[in-house]
Amino acid sequence: MGLKNETKSKYDTKTFYKEYVSGMNSRQLGKEFQSDSERLKSLYFDALKETNPSIPPQKIPVTQKFLSLLSALTKRLNPVRRLVFGVSVVSFGLHFLLNFLGFYIFPIQPLLLPVAFLGILFILLIELLEKSDVQKELDFARDIQLSLLPPSAVKWDQLEAHSFAATASEVGGDYVDIIKSDKGTYVFIADVSGKGLSAALYMVRIQALVHLIIKKQNPGPKELFLELNDYVKSNKMDKTFVTACAAFFPNGEDHFIFSRAGHNTPIIFNKKLDSTFKLKTEGFALGMTSTKLLKKTLEEKKFQFEAGDSLLLYTDGLVEARNNMGEEYGEERLDGLMSIYGSLHAKSITQKIQSSIELYIGDENPLDDITFTTIHKNDPVKNLAD
Fold it and tell me: Which one has a higher pLDDT value, 239 or 21?
């Protein structure tokens, strides 16, 4: 990847050209064209279903298909832009119709093509400006969301944690947190179903609830999930669900208490055995079932966690990240990294995983948010007087 010189320099034609053609390589253009084609195709079929719900697509006349697509596109414009678009299309069509028929009407005909061009250009510029405003709002929302995440590095007692989070879009639905209480420290990771702004808003809601419940009740991981499930299931019309893991590290103890609500299975490295194993516990995702049934199925277990051990919690975006061949990163590769680097400090393990995933996906954009956190237990500090 090339490095960008961010010092100020003269803005000239050459600079403008470089900015304009940035990203215009054959591979990127092909991906963008395919993506836009898929979106247009999806809009086309949705329009046909909406305007002709009882007729199979193959039996709909071509003109009706065209009008359905045109209607779906123009509905996205406000009335003023729709009027400008209509005038532009009519001007464009009238210009070629008069030329075809051999008529020449002065001074109207010479103006038809410029009017059509300027009308479309006007709509394009306004739409780009509006998109820029929306992008600014999303950037602001992203800043707010990032401010809710814990510091990348957190230390307490003999323990240390280091986290990584990267959203697939401007905002995302992954959530990682480290919350200290009087009795110990909670490490929480979750993934809200869906992507984008709706998932991000739901994530903020979950974050607020987690902090509120812990502050008021100091619950165990299972009790925390049962309380959260009550909130998630409070709206029967809401089909959102949340997968999550919670680990509670009691102060001064060599163990942690753990529950998993339908989330990816965490990996723990055991220094004594010099091997890894997965924290397989049962439990439905939050919002998938009633709290009564969740209470019966959700497991809460205690795991030893001694000096030199490490724990990795992650969301599905990490193991499902794909390279340019469409192959997933996979749990085996992640388990292999923990087997090799699990004895290192939390920051080192996180950096090794980050480097590995970046090397694997290359120039591919992640399809889902990638979030993970590593917890490592250090040796006790020796007293020099002893």
Answer: 21
